[in-house]
From TrEMBL:
Entry keywords, A to Z: Transferase
Upper lineage: Archaea, Candidatus Marsarchaeota, Candidatus Marsarchaeota group 1
One GO molecular-function entry: corrinoid adenosyltransferase activity
Protein name per UniProt: Cob(I)yrinic acid a,c-diamide adenosyltransferase
Domain of life where this protein originates: Archaea
GO biological process terms on file: cobalamin biosynthetic process
Length: 197
């Protein structure tokens, strides 16, 4: 081999190693906006990740204990997916639960989230409706920013929910804003099994 061929081989190998290293770096992904589909998009990503052999953690911050289709589906994938509902229901729609109860549930959920992320066991961690939790003052935005800064390099972190804080959006690698154009809820229809939950 001449010197020029060796140089090309070195450059190609170096480029390949850069691509591999880049793929190891986990992203911060935000799904926000007033439209439907934020959690659904994150759950679709979870299915894709499981298909590639990844371990996935899904922690729900606001949704209550009622059964959902996604919970039932992920139960079949429990070897690869940790799925936990840690909230006690919608903050604004649940007047029977004082704000303090929501605050305590959010604190417990946040401690669990920090442990799950820092464990580096899960390559994809979805903090479902974390943006709502910060918007309602249940979790300080500064703590979420700190988690983004200190997460293990390989962990991909997905943050869903309406009203993502601008500072979180700035730190994220990928942000999608769902926009509500038309929804049956506007005509008084309630959520549907298999479509909404």
């Amino acid at each position: 081999m001449d010197g020029q061929s060796n140089q090309r081989s070195y450059i190609n190998l170096s480029s390949l190693l850069c691509v591999i290293e880049r793929e190891k770096r986990g992203w911060v992904i935000v799904y926000t906006g007033d439209g439907k589909g934020k959690s659904t998009a994150a759950f679709g990503m979870a299915i894709r990740a499981v298909g590639h052999g990844w371990k996935v953690a899904i922690l729900q911050f606001v949704k209550g204990s009622w059964p959902t289709g996604e919970e039932k589906a992920f139960a079949h994938l429990s070897e690869r997916v940790l799925f936990k509902k840690l909230g006690i229901g919608f903050v604004t729609w649940n007047p029977k639960r004082p704000y303090e109860e929501h605050l305590e549930a959010a604190k417990r959920a946040w401690e669990e989230a920090k442990n799950v992320v820092s464990s580096n066991v899960y390559r994809l961690v979805i903090l479902d409706e974390i943006n709502n939790a910060t918007r309602f003052g249940l979790i300080p935005v500064e703590e979420v920013l700190s988690l983004i800064d200190t997460k293990p390099k390989e962990v991909n972190l997905v943050l869903t929910g309406r009203g993502a804080d601008e500072r979180i959006i700035q730190k994220a690698d990928l942000v999608t804003e769902m926009k509500n154009v038309k929804h049956p809820f506007d005509k008084g229809e309630w959520a549907r099994v298999g479509i909404d939950y």
